[in-house]
Amino acid sequence: MKSKMLPAMLVGVLCPGIGSAFADSHGMTSMQLAEEKKCTACHAIKESEAMAIAPSFRSIAQRYSMDESDRLVQVVLTGGEGHWGKAEMPDMGVRMDVSQGEAEKLVKWILEMEE
């Protein structure tokens, strides 16, 4: 058991920031949050996995900059249409509720995705 934990501990010591971009104080990664909030029911990670319902997270990251994160947080919180062609983001109540903090975390994660 100890031998399996040693590599993980070494990664944590040698690369201290590696998990911080993805894990919050409760240990949930942004991907887990996206899955829990059912974002992945309409959005895929990569364009090649994209569903017809909504743009992929990477497509969003390529289209928007971090300067537009406040606007995207509002889209996550309020839904609406006209953000991406004719696709409409359902309002809260139709989809799972997302808090302000969760929306900020998800948007930051999406906008930091690499190609």
Jot down its keywords.
mainly alpha; disordered N terminus; Cytochrome Bc1 Complex, Chain D, domain 2; 43% helix; two-stranded antiparallel sheet; electron transport; Cyt_c-like_dom; Cyt_c_ID; 115 residues; 2 strands; 5 helices
How would you characterize the overall build of this protein?
With 115 residues, the protein is mainly α. It has one domain (30-111): Cytochrome Bc1 Complex, Chain D, domain 2. The chain has 5 helices and 2 strands. The chain has helices at 2-14, 30-36, 57-63, 69-78, 100-111; strands at residues 80-84, 87-89. A two-stranded antiparallel ribbon has the order 1-2. Helix 2 crosses helix 5 and helix 4 (69-78) crosses helix 5 (100-111). The radius of gyration is 16 Å and the shape is globular.
Integer-rounded radius of gyration: 16 Å
- Measured by DSSP, the beta-strand proportion falls in 5-15%
The residue ranges in which pLDDT falls below 50 over 5 or more consecutive positions are: 1-25
The main sheet orders its strands as 1-2
Indicate the topology.
Blueprint: H1 2-14, H2 30-36, H3 57-63, H4 69-78, E1 80-84, E2 87-89, H5 100-111
Helix pairs in contact: 2-5, 4-5
Domain Cytochrome c: 22-114
Keywords: Electron transport, Heme, Iron, Metal-binding, Signal, Transport
InterPro entries: Cyt_c-like_dom, Cyt_c-like_dom_sf, Cyt_c_ID
